[in-house]
Write a structure and sequence with these properties.
The protein has 140 residues and is an alpha/beta fold. Helix content is 39%, strand content 33%. The protein contains 5 helices and 9 strands. The chain is globular.
């Protein structure tokens, strides 16, 4: 896992199910209650689609159980079906602590707007190393 305070990047061979992703994300989150964060991610995803681009999932929560806001970028080496929402090759989890500072919210909003740029998303999907992803994100 590579990190840049707000952004953390990981490459994973594969997950066999969505619950493993929730557990992974909640274990990487800055929290004292990973089980709660995992459950909150599941509950948020149950509300509706989290697909923001082809093969890109964006699970996100704002929670009092998050101690430090983070954007976790996880490149999967093998795609898998995210509970009938489509094949996923890249997971971008936004974990926002309650009452986060406006400056951090602005940085995250800028990142989210970049996800509307097809070239940006294609570069993330094509990246084969943590360093490449970190460089792509570092340009924001």
């Amino acid at each position: 896992m590579s990190e840049n305070k707000l952004y953390q990047v990981a490459m994973i061979d594969t997950f066999s199910n969505v619950q493993e992703i929730y557990q992974f994300l909640s274990q990487k989150a800055a929290t004292t209650a990973p089980e709660k964060v995992s459950q909150q991610l599941k509950e948020r995803v149950d509300l509706g689609s989290i697909m923001v681009a082809e093969k890109v999932a964006l699970p996100h929560i704002e929670s009092p159980d998050i101690l430090t806001s983070q954007v976790l970028l996880v490149k999967l080496q093998q795609t898998f079906d995210w509970e009938k929402q489509g094949d996923v090759a890249f997971v971008i989890a936004i974990l926002l602590k309650e009452n986060e500072a406006v400056e951090i919210k602005k940085r995250i909003a800028l990142f989210i707007r970049k996800l509307a740029d097809d070239e940006f998303v294609e570069n993330l999907l094509a990246a084969n190393h943590i360093k490449q992803i970190t460089e792509i994100v570092g340009e924001i």
